[in-house]
Design goal:
By secondary structure, this protein is an alpha+beta fold. The chain has twelve helices and eight strands. 49% of the residues lie in helices and 15% in strands. Strand 3 and strand 4 form a beta hairpin. This is AraC family transcriptional regulator.
Length: 293
């Protein structure tokens, strides 16, 4: 039986979630930013607009527009003296959270982010925009106590892309950025975010391709290249995972099909059996046998 990819564990020890994303917008918010993060968080801090004074382990540096700082867990840090206007993104990740909420292979430098020295790098405008988009997409997902199945996909793929993008940025410093790679990741992220919103009613690749201003073939190729699965496979997988969750209670099968965007119970049953070798009714009976109340 295919495992349910529902909400993953999101908390480490203590009151802090495993991932925190924060966008301080004024002096007061900047000054208290570090209180939102725990000692087990590794920090990514990016200045998109303005500048800010950054202190870490007793040392102070000025961070200007486009500066990205990686602070491994266990370091004491704070910010003050921001200019106005200021636009900063701060993302904290625990090692445990990453290991429980990512897909695919992690970059070779993964352990460095969580255990080695503090590093800083100046990014170009395209890279700043892409990283801020990543922060923005991951932020709302991290605030959910019980993320939906679709948002769980966005979260896990987003974290994986973030870590690989970090490796690319530090490898490329001093060289020319690989904008094609960034553009591909950007397209996949937008697709994942659209899918999380519309998967229940929009089952065709054409809908997502139209909204992303690309052809269906191009979208499917790019998603396959970045994730190992085609866009259609992601749509099907998300629908199947939600259907299996809904079939665990006594909701009428006809109602489950309607909720997932199928016009008739026959269409839903045909879709489900094609992708699981069981009818919805047979799957429900099997689950009740395996996990009796």
């Amino acid at each position: 039986m295919t495992p349910i990819l529902g909400p993953q564990k999101t908390h480490d020890r203590g009151p802090y979630p495993g991932m925190v994303v924060h966008f301080p917008k004024n002096m007061q918010q900047v000054a208290r930013t570090n209180s939102l993060f725990g000692p087990f968080h590794s920090i990514l801090l990016l200045v998109k607009k303005g500048r800010v004074q950054f202190q870490v382990n007793g040392n102070s540096i000025v961070l200007y527009k486009g500066r990205l700082v990686v602070v491994p867990r266990g370091n004491l840090w704070s910010m003050d003296g921001p200019t106005s206007p200021i636009q900063i993104g701060v993302l904290g990740l625990s090692r445990k959270f990453v290991l429980e909420n990512t897909v695919g292979s992690l970059p070779p430098s993964f352990m460095w982010y969580f255990g080695k020295g503090i590093r800083t790098i100046a990014l170009g405008q395209d890279d700043v925009s892409f990283m801020f988009l990543l922060f923005s997409l991951l932020g709302p997902k991290s605030h959910e106590a019980e993320p939906s199945i679709a948002n769980g996909h966005v979260l896990r793929h987003g974290i994986n892309m973030l870590l690989w993008e970090l490796q690319r940025l530090f490898q490329d410093q001093g060289g020319s950025p690989t904008s094609v790679s960034t553009a591909g990741h950007l397209l996949v992220l937008h697709f994942m975010d659209l899918l999380a919103t519309h998967y229940r009613m929009e089952h065709k690749i054409g809908f997502y391709a139209k909204h992303l201003h690309v052809t269906a073939d191009h979208l499917s190729r790019m998603v396959k290249k970045r994730t190992g699965k085609t866009a259609k496979e992601h749509i099907t997988e998300t629908l199947m995972e939600e259907a299996k969750v809904l079939l665990r209670d006594n909701t009428p099968i006809k109602e489950i099909g309607r909720v997932l965007g199928f016009r008739a119970i026959y269409d839903f049953s045909k879709f489900f059996k094609r992708n699981s070798s069981l009818s919805p009714r047979s799957y429900r009976e099997k689950i009740k046998t395996l996990y009796p109340e």
